[in-house]
């Protein structure tokens, strides 16, 4: 028979003969602790084998003479074991959610490869993954980052970290022999949370032994407190803090997983552990006086019935003043927590960092590119997850899990903090936020998991600028979920250069329907994506009036879908297809369907390799259109004859403006600045040699027209425009 006794530290065993009598008869009724002691003494069932698991602090509770062998389970001491775990876990079927089998398999292999490379660099993550439970946390976080496609997302980042702590510390008491019976997680939140919070406030991730002593031991007064600290040091300390592996920092400690520092700092603040001395003394006095006043009030109420003393009611009220006064002071704690959250969430020095989801991804998979030289000054530490974790901890589900861990956050406390947040967080969010910070704010609202608060927070959010934010499926799900809490239309949604694809558009479809101005430039959206955009524009609830698809590989097939959408759409007034590889065939298809459209006012077909025939056809259709009055055709392959034909077509009907060149006969075009501004904005993304050739032709055209005019005023205008074109050519030549 093999007995496995799991968790010796929970049992208070007494091996003294006076404390536990000898027993060799399995049929004799004795307390369970006596059965365990006699099994370990080998007095009861001596042939049986016994394995006992315990924390290090409780090892010596069994006298050494009863132990045959000690073994310590260390973890993944070999990096290859870590790699094998990640390969098996990340390659499980179905872990990629709704993605297609081919694409998901490739993405899983890529994740394993990037993670393996980061482990080989002897990064801090290799030290963290020495513990298998942290390998679980890494894999679960990667699943969340890469394979979340549902709206709303099925889980939160805070929920992952809270569940991780429950898996490791559920039901754990720090020291079963201590009368306080404090839960392990409560002690960690109090002690390690304080260190984490002080590190966040001072922007520090490495801690010396002096830092640890100052944080842990400065307030230790009693022997019981010192004993609890010893148990913590032997059992729990190495789980949260590990020696730093960076050169020159070998004698310092860092948090095993960087984000855990921010989580514990957030938990420390939300639990109300961040108190001044006066607040702590006030709370203790309030509790003492409150208990005494209850007892005295009972006695005085009995005396007042026997002796008619008039001063007794006054005395009773005086006894109640202090607890009431303290309760008012404690209400200000919730304001302080909300203020801390808002202050950290909208720190201006963090405005131009990557968003927090990209930061987490980099901390796990590393940063692609050359490694930093050891002597190179490190970047400033960033703690943008801290306020987001504060919001996430206040969600109902996470509070319920923390309650199981002995960290109680009452419903009333959460309600008061949320109420105070309306004054601080929502007011600060109304300021213009850079794209990465706006993404962090949307992620904060997702983590908070409070629909009513989210609806109120985004009520004033009419313009959403997320340009250059890498919109992964998770970020698209967060955006769709948060924006789904509001009913009003969005004036402008800017998703320029956001790595969008077909799946992104499908996730965001309900949000895109309610956007008046939609910027989708520079996203590699091909014909498949155009089919989804066609469905969007033909939807009966679509309100999109301004659609920008510049610098996307739309192509001829994509033009067919967009032409179909133009024919049936009733809201679109401005459409930009600048540099979308339409060619003559694509432009012809769009021109054929323009007649069925009754609302379009401006169409941009610039830089699409259009020749004279296609350009003339487009302008001829535009002349007959009821509302279309501006067509952009610059940077196309239009000859001088074609230019003259387009100019004559334009003069036949006022109101139809074809923007082709910077000149209009012997004068400068009224729209020369519009054309040059478009070119200026797109210079980094266009083919430099082709742009240089077009600008050279424009410059020749300007110089020729200037020589033909006799007006000094017009010559001056030509010289001004020529100087702008020469500046652009100079920028191209100098890279």
UniProtKB/TrEMBL annotation:
Residues 668-729 form the NLR family member X1 C-terminal domain. The keyword Glycosyltransferase does not apply. Keywords: ATP-binding, Leucine-rich repeat, Nucleotide-binding, Repeat. The keyword Nucleotide-binding applies. Residues 1-86 form the NACHT domain. GO terms for molecular function: ATP binding. Pfam families: LRR_6, NACHT, NLRX1_C. PANTHER family: NACHT, LRR AND CARD DOMAINS-CONTAINING. This is NLR family member X1. It comes from Podiceps cristatus. The lineage of its organism: Eukaryota, Metazoa, Chordata, Craniata, Vertebrata.
């Amino acid at each position: 028979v093999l007995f496995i006794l799991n968790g010796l530290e929970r049992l208070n065993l007494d091996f003294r003969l006076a404390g536990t009598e000898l027993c060799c008869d399995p049929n004799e009724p004795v307390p369970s602790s006596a059965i365990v002691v006699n099994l370990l003494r080998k007095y009861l069932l001596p042939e049986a084998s016994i394995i006992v698991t315990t924390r290090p602090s409780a090892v010596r509770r069994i006298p050494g003479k009863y132990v045959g062998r000690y073994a310590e389970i260390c973890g993944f001491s070999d990096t290859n074991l870590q790699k094998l775990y990640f390969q098996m876990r990340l390659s499980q079927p179905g872990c990629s959610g709704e993605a297609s089998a081919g694409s998901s398999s490739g993405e899983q292999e890529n994740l394993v490869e990037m993670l393996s490379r980061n482990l080989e660099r002897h990064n801090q993550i290799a030290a963290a993954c020495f513990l298998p439970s942290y390998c679980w946390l890494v894999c679960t976080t990667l699943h969340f980052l890469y394979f979340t496609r549902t709206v709303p997302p099925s889980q939160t980042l805070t929920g992952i970290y809270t569940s991780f702590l429950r898996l490791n510390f559920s039901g754990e008491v720090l020291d079963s022999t201590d009368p306080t019976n404090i839960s392990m997680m409560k002690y960690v939140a109090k002690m390690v949370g304080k260190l984490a919070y002080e590190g966040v406030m001072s922007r520090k991730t490495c801690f010396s032994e002096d830092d640890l002593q100052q944080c842990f031991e400065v307030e230790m007064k009693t022997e019981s407190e010192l004993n609890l600290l010893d148990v913590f040091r032997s059992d729990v300390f190495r789980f949260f803090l590990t020696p730093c592996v960076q050169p020159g920092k070998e004698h310092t400690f860092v948090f095993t997983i960087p984000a855990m520092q921010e989580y514990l700092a957030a938990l420390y603040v939300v639990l109300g552990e961040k108190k001044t001395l006066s607040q702590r003394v006030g709370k203790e006095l309030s509790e003492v006086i409150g208990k005494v006043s209850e007892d005295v009030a009972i006695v005085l109420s009995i005396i007042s019935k026997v002796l008619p003393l008039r001063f007794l009611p006054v005395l009773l009220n005086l006894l109640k003043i202090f607890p009431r006064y303290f309760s008012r002071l404690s209400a200000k704690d919730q304001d302080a927590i909300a203020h801390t959250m808002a202050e950290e969430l909208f720190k201006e020095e963090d405005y131009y960092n990557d968003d927090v989801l990209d930061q987490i991804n980099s901390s796990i998979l590393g940063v692609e590119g050359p490694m930093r030289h050891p002597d190179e000054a490190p970047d400033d530490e960033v703690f943008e997850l801290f306020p987001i974790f504060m919001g996430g901890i206040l969600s109902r589900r996470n509070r319920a899990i923390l309650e199981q861990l002995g960290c109680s956050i009452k419903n009333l406390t959460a309600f008061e903090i949320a109420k105070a947040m309306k004054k601080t967080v929502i007011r600060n969010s109304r300021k213009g936020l850079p794209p990465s910070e706006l993404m962090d704010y949307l992620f904060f609202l997702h983590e908070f998991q409070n629909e009513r608060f989210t609806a109120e927070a985004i009520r004033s959010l009419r313009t959403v600028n997320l340009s250059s934010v890498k919109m992964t499926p998770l970020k698209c799900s967060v955006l769709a979920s948060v924006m789904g809490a509001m009913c009003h239309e969005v004036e402008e949604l800017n998703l320029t250069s956001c790595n969008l694809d077909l799946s992104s558009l499908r996730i965001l479809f309900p949000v895109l329907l309610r956007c008046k101005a939609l910027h989708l430039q520079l996203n590699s959206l091909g014909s498949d994506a155009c089919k989804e955009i066609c469905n969007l524009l033909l939807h009966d609830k679509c309100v999109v009036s301004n659609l920008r698809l510049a610098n996307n590989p739309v192509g001829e097939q994509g033009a067919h879908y967009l032409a179909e959408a133009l024919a049936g759409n009733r809201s679109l007034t401005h459409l930009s297809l600048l540099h979308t590889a339409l060619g003559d065939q694509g432009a012809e298809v769009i021109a054929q369907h323009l007649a069925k459209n009754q609302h379009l006012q401006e169409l941009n077909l610039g830089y699409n390799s259009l020749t004279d025939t296609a350009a003339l056809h487009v302008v001829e259709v535009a002349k007959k259109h009821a509302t279309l009055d501006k067509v952009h055709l610059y940077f196309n392959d239009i000859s001088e004859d074609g230019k003259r034909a387009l100019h004559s077509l334009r003069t036949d009907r006022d109101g139809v403006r074809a923007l082709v060149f910077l000149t209009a006969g012997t004068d400068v075009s009224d729209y020369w600045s519009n054309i040059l501004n478009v070119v200026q904005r797109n210079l980094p993304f266009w083919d430099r040699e082709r742009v240089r050739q077009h600008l050279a032709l424009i410059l020749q055209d300007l110089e020729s027209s200037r020589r033909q005019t006799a007006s000094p005023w017009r010559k001056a205008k030509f010289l001004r425009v020529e100087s702008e074109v020469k500046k652009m050519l100079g920028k191209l030549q100098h890279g």
